[in-house]
Amino acid sequence: MSDFRIVERLQKIDVDIQRNQLNYHAKRVLVSKEFTFDAAHHLHHYEGKCKNLHGHTYRVVLGLSGYTDERGLMIDFGDIKKIWKQKIEIHLDHRYLNETLPPMNTTAENIVVWIYEKLAEALLDEPRYSGACVEFIRLYETPTSYAEARREWMEGE
To answer: What's the whole-model pTM score?
Structure first.
């Protein structure tokens, strides 16, 4: 009754599918990857609870767009993770953000733009990501509160 079946043989490149068939289209696509990090901070010139040292488990969503290559990939999810770990997270995870980020008030609004800039810079530094763009960064400070930076805002203003 079930439609489940075990595949008898795997498809083989250049036998069952030709290399020129791997990329199905020539359209721009968006890929997204999420990460979390824990960090402490406090806000300056602010009269609320956040003026005191406190921490968050932040959640960040990275949205990148571009055109697929001959394999049908725009950017490997593993490459996004590598960029995040090596270029961005090292400044954020289990850190006191007031020390590790450039001089700024460590609001979600400021941090999200910093993350946008770091990711955009990392893409420019790597020729194989030519044409890839950061479309948006969404930074959740709490499960229900986030700040967002979008390409049209970063490039258009």
So the answer is: 0.94
